[in-house]
Predict the structure of mannose-1-phosphate guanylyltransferase.
Amino acid sequence: MPKQFSRLVDAETSTFQATALRVTDASVFAKPIVIASSDARFIVAEQLAQSGVAADIVLEPSRQDSAAAVAVAALCAAKRDPSTVLLILAADHVIGDTEAFRAAARDAASGARAGHVMTLGIQPTRPASDYGYVRPGPVLDGLSGLHAVERFVEKPDKAGAERLIAEGALWNSGYFMFRADVMIAELAAHVPDVLAAARAALEAATSDLDFIRLDAAAFAKAPKTSIDYAVMERTSRAGVLPVSFPWSDVGTWDAVWKVLDRDSQGNAVRGRVELVGTTNSLVHSEGEGLTTVVGLDDVVVVATPDAVLVASKARSGEVKDLVATLRQKAHPEADAHRRMYRPWGWYQRIDIGERFQVKRIMVTPGGRLSLQKHYHRAEHWVVVKGTAEVTVNERVVLVHENEAVYLPIGSMHRLTNPGKIPLELIEVQVGSYTGEDDIIRVEDIYGR
Amino acid sequence: MPKQFSRLVDAETSTFQATALRVTDASVFAKPIVIASSDARFIVAEQLAQSGVAADIVLEPSRQDSAAAVAVAALCAAKRDPSTVLLILAADHVIGDTEAFRAAARDAASGARAGHVMTLGIQPTRPASDYGYVRPGPVLDGLSGLHAVERFVEKPDKAGAERLIAEGALWNSGYFMFRADVMIAELAAHVPDVLAAARAALEAATSDLDFIRLDAAAFAKAPKTSIDYAVMERTSRAGVLPVSFPWSDVGTWDAVWKVLDRDSQGNAVRGRVELVGTTNSLVHSEGEGLTTVVGLDDVVVVATPDAVLVASKARSGEVKDLVATLRQKAHPEADAHRRMYRPWGWYQRIDIGERFQVKRIMVTPGGRLSLQKHYHRAEHWVVVKGTAEVTVNERVVLVHENEAVYLPIGSMHRLTNPGKIPLELIEVQVGSYTGEDDIIRVEDIYGR
């Protein structure tokens, strides 16, 4: 599962949810705009709903890098008011002090309102070679505490990082703050193709209850470039506010370990874990299983019901190479995860054998699956929680907890949760082929 | 799962099965006697059946160490014929050359027939400090190639091992060979209490179709002592046959790794595994899950659907401490495993939630569960393979593949496989309590 949606750092809240919750103070922030990959739409909606955060969700039909995303955000905000001040936040960072963060946002906003493109510069706590740096210049006119940016510096080696810190450089957080009209003017000046593509994609966007879907053909024309390279390193308006709250971009497992609570042996554990003679390690056990580690130092172990990762913490950056290898070899774990989120809820496979498959399915109140049929499998549904409204051909029946219904091969069927509590059922599929693609959708309220 | 029943070394055959298959040549060996813990009875019977090996299975109601087990074996064999020659084999060893092993058994038998208590001494291939040693003395009278035992030596340190090997000492394999009447006489001389307890336990034993069950009260009186200490180190009749087949007692994960096939990086892998920058490691992934290891040397990773072990290979001996810790903390994984073997087949839990539980159940042809009822749960059975004969109160129905049956709370029910192929079904339990102990057994063909 993409890092920002997983509960690695906090058992209850993903970093995406923590990011959304960080900007809910209505005296400081307006309703957020979430720019997300189209693939992530259901989990974005689900996690926002879980956290009780209302947001506009804009879906990118393809990945065009951060300049295009920022252009879309600026154009959306400018529709509200061209002088709206935007704060750009990554969804996968950890911030240790929400109050300090809010205070920083308020301070940087004064620079943004004055026409600067502000960034937050984090006071370094170690000579990190995995972050970019920003060197502050003179104080901005009439804006006490805010500095012009002297220059941005790419990720240095360790010696370079030590030199930069001695010179007063700060970590480049990637949090930017600016007026919508200012950013639009900067994009027009430096990357007009990006701005044009974003504008066209937004103008031709379609909206439904939950999502604003950018036009795929128009958006695909945006050149792929980062906002740092496209604007921040070129603009004459760059400003920086030095801040010192605890911060991590959680870019490696080592960085995750650093932000977690650790015991006296230096271990950060979660879930059913038992350690013997093990130190300075991160051990995360999801689900019911027990994870044990014996006689190791400085390792990362993440065990979930569908995959296990064991890595040297020092070399956890190589996990990226691993994911590339998995993609190349077409292992589904590279991108898929066990619980599949859908507009109506989720499902997960719990068993599979020759000629059968078993799933657990959750449908949110009001959720409604498509009207569908299968050519190669029959299905048995046993309701274990809530009430299901089941359509089978011409018949509609209510199926309550501890009741079952049978859907013969080829029958036209539909599942709805008409109730007020989540519906959970066990689906037993029996047939010669149980692949996801044996599904004929006849009608779907989610436009799939 | 106890090591001897798991498929760690070979994906198809446990070391217990390999041990049983090693003595199937009827021109050399009679029908084997398996002495097993009562807890292991179903898996012993299941694995013997899978391997097509017929054996007498004697169940120990408590663990009394190896002298008592050997006494029971000798007394059983003496009933056939007091001069029967017995070969004692541990179930958790690996032997690389079955033909050489059989030849050794034939050679040692001549010493046993002549009244010696023979052991096989393995030619050492490294100065092991985790094996005991045996020093051969002069050749036995008229028995070319067989030596008297000069003495047995406890596990030495590495320097001691090097010295012993230079002196011509051999590894003590723990394989013993003797006439039944000779061993009974030796036991009577050295540990008469052990012999008396074994005799009483066998005389009061009960037999059913599958098992001979030793009397618990009588057997519990056997002093706990090993056959090495009780007889081998004291008898004047000890003899040793030096042999040189590849052998391991697979006593640690490091030893398991040593007997497995390894790739050019020194890795022994099994199942869905992907390694990046990893060397000299054993990685074993059971079930559907993917296991990945990044940037580590000399580790053991064993991932199964219910537990994950990650250990330094050099320190894998400490796994024993881990199991002790798990027992102390009452983690079920210390002794239980996910697939629970029963006289009629097996079951495993595949999902559990609030007020429900899902199991996959396999019933062997002819298998018959007890007539039973539950006070707190109803059950839905969906047959996914084979045919079930289901009794529900007064009614008996046949349930075929892709058919389901419902068992209300409190109904008297029974499941039988009347067919010729294994029966598999998915059981969905729904109710306020789904623990194993909500079961009232009214009748059971297995005497439970």
